[in-house]
Design brief:
This protein is of the alpha/beta class. It is about 35% helix and about 15% strand. The termini are far apart. The relative contact order is 0.16.
Length: about 375
Amino acid sequence: MGRPRVRDDLALVEGYHSPQLEVEVRLNTNEAPLPPPEAFTESFLAVARAVPWNRYPERSALPLRARIAEVESEGAPWSFTAANVLAANGSNEVLQSIALTYAGAGRTVLCFEPTYALHGHISRVCGSSVVERDRRDDFTLDVDAAVAAVTELRPSVVFLCSPNNPTGRVEDPATVEAVLGATEAVDGLLVVDEAYGQFADHSALSLVAEDRNVVVTRTFSKTWSAAALRLGYLVGPTWAVQQVEQVVLPYHLDALTQLAGTVALGFVGDMRERVAALVAERERLVAGLEGLGVEQWPSGANFVLFRPPGGDGDAVWQGLVDRSVLVRNCSSWPRLGGCLRVTVGTPEENDRFLAALAAVLGGG
């Protein structure tokens, strides 16, 4: 008796992995360096005691979705409601649900490399044909080339990541608008991945409307200091939320996750203070990298992509690990030969990283 065979279209697909090593300074997965305030934990524990463990969770997660809509409506041209929001187990489940709804076998998904690897990976797992087009050498998006690609390929789904992971680039609003117009012209859906959106100074949320083919995805993992929670969401037109809801599994979002997310949204001020502190610390990190003579790219996120002198990212990565500092080695990613990505940590962690990098580059 032989073993069951993997689908032919998945046989050569590699999994997505982020190496974890035992180090003193871990700056490789874009996590928030500090936990949420203690008051969050106390508030969560208080409401968690009332969970009816023998009952299924609230299937529609309406209280959580309504609170997300309220928070994301601040600064938007109009007010969102719970009907504009879908919550799921991390933004990756949101992305997978979108791909299952609008992509899949016989349909095309368009990505612009380099970008978040799971856009293409999830789409392939869902059976989609994935087409990747390159960004410019400085990792900005050539809007004319992007529009031409959408017009030529007629994709069912187009992914844009802003701020882009791993480059940190923030898409110009005019570029997003142009790509959206081209996507709508071929009856496709534009997905703007804003996992790092709160670190940037503008958002595609201003484009979300009932007559626009765009959704924005976000996560609690970064700005809300809740990577352990695995909670993400999309904001989009009500028809898109309704269609994606048909794909998600029943009771997919457990009661504790819903409660924790709702409680976290009561600490918006704390979140914004953390974001402001991380942005300031990012700029200090950028200045430190500039002083070390490394090539780097402008970032609107909580990380910085850089390439050491000589371009030997593997050797520099290992040298940092030897000094108990872990960053992300992006050298094998499309068009990122020799590149490393460092997450913005605490001031102490960032000092430790800069000192270790200086020692590695100096041969010390």
